[in-house]
Design a protein that fits this description.
Helix content is 76%, strand content 1%. The termini are far apart. A two-stranded parallel ribbon has the order 1-2. Helix 4 packs antiparallel against helix 14 and helix 5 runs parallel beside helix 16. The protein is globular, with a radius of gyration of 21 Å. It is mainly α. It contains 19 helices and two strands.
Length: 452
């Protein structure tokens, strides 16, 4: 007997909003999922959104914190990268589940639940976070162009605005093309770092030990500060909005069984993709530890400095070139997901539509204008400071995305039979509290200067 759709189930009535325009309507339910066939075939139909999400966990903003952690403290902070990745796995799974079950992305869910002033405030904070993330991508791509081709930073920043054309081309061809392009760039980044990793001859024992949490991370204020920076740079708030939307590009069945299957496959997809992000972030820190920490270059935190030091330290220019290519691919990849996140957030919170190219242009200008000014006035040092500031903004906004996500997915009234199980509720709220405490510490150190 065929299972009845659950579209009109009681838990759907707990949302105030009615008749929401589908998130990303141009791609909504555009990809067919086979009703019959092997589990692998069905999973492959779902595979893709997780990789768009994983891009945010390996963007240029992460590189500076990973480089600083590896060069200063060797392999010790690998456990922090692992912990932050596990937190990301849980949060992205919840984000995907929210989108599949409710048919709302996180921005739409916030608009339907909170009052207009609160929803508007959350939108402003999220827009700031997306602009900060876009800023990191602009600067990262500009630094890569400067290092690889000698293009001045100011011109490199301006050149990044032309990615709008690439995005429009991919969007017009279909969402699968966008996913394929992103996955291809992830493969490029992974291969580049795999080769550099081998060249750096890291200590296998040191790596294994680094993945075991050390008490030093808590007792050493400098180490704790960088550890918080790694956590803040890894878990990206805009990814929670993005994932809850792009999982709806699949034509899963609107039944309890169909949604459970979709949740399972979406969780597999994002978890596997985040394993790639874990490898790349860990590889950056390991290369910094093996190349810089062991050779006495313990103050390397700038991307340009790392690029220039790799050649003399490892004895080959190939290492620096691969590092630059990976950085360029990372910056370009991140701009694609930033486009979608910006569109989702504006349309979700404000219930208004704007042409994707116009939305992207506005976001790009918000990022490019301060980047051009700072680059022209202060050069590479200024762009590094701006990169760090962008990560601070992202960290501070994270709680305002995580708390609503955990709250909604833990509500029986809003999720019905898909509500988080008790163990998942405890885990999710623990992650939310940890993030809030760490962000409070980060805010304190940002305002008062010295770690506690």
């Amino acid at each position: 007997m065929q299972e009845k759709p659950i579209v009109n189930a009681d838990y759907r009535q707990s949302w105030r909003g009615r008749g929401n325009t589908p998130s990303l309507p141009e791609a909504y339910r555009s990809m067919r999922v086979p009703k019959k066939g092997s589990t692998l075939r069905k999973f492959l139909a779902f595979a893709g959104p997780g990789y768009l999400v994983a891009v945010g966990y390996m963007d240029p903003g992460n590189w500076a914190t990973d480089l600083a952690g590896g060069s200063q403290f060797g392999y010790t902070l690998l456990s922090v990268i692992l912990l932050s990745n596990l937190m990301a796995v849980v949060l992205q799974a919840l984000s995907g589940k929210l989108g599949i079950v409710t048919g709302r992305d996180l921005a739409q869910a916030c608009r339907d639940h909170y009052s207009k002033p609160v929803s508007f405030g959350l939108w402003i904070l999220c827009e700031l976070a997306i602009a900060a993330c876009d800023l990191a991508e602009v600067i990262g791509a500009a630094i890569a162009l400067n290092l690889l081709f000698g293009i001045p930073l100011v011109y490199g920043v301006l050149l990044t605005s032309f990615d709008v054309l690439l995005i429009l081309l991919l969007q017009n061809k279909g969402f699968r093309y966008l996913e394929a392009f992103v996955i291809a760039l992830i493969v490029v980044i992974g291969l580049c770092f795999a080769i550099v990793l081998v060249m750096s001859h890291p200590s296998m024992g040191g790596i294994a030990k680094g993945f075991i949490p050390s008490g030093q991370i808590i007792t050493n204020p400098s180490m704790l500060y960088i550890a918080i920076g790694i956590l803040g740079a890894t878990v990206m708030p805009h990814n929670l909005y993005l994932h809850s939307s792009i999982v709806q590009t699949r034509q899963y069945e609107q039944t309890e069984l169909g949604k459970r299957q979709a949740i399972r496959f979406a969780t597999w997809d994002s978890t596997i993709a985040l394993c790639f992000a874990l490898f790349i972030n860990a590889a950056i820190l390991i290369v910094a530890a093996a190349s810089f920490h062991t050779t006495g270059h313990s103050e390397v935190a700038e991307i340009g400095e790392a690029y220039r030091l790799l050649t003399p330290v490892l004895g080959t220019t190939i290492a620096s070139v691969l590092f630059g290519v990976a950085l360029l691919a990372s910056g370009q990849n991140s701009t694609l997901t930033g486009t979608l996140a910006g569109q989702i957030v504006m349309e979700g919170f404000l219930n208004m539509r704007m042409k994707p190219w116009l939305r992207r242009l506005i976001t790009r200008l918000i990022a490019i204008i301060p980047a051009v000014i700072v680059t022209a006035l202060y050069g590479e040092k200024g762009t590094t400071d701006l990169l760090i500031l962008s990560q601070v903004i992202l960290s501070l906004q994270l709680s305002f995305a995580v708390v609503p996500l955990v709250k909604f997915t833990s509500s029986k009234a809003k999720m019905g039979p898909f509500v988080n199980r008790p163990w998942l509720k405890v885990t999710a709220w623990t992650i939310a509290v940890v993030i809030m405490v760490l962000n409070a510490y980060l805010l304190y150190t940002t305002v008062f200067g010295d770690p506690i």
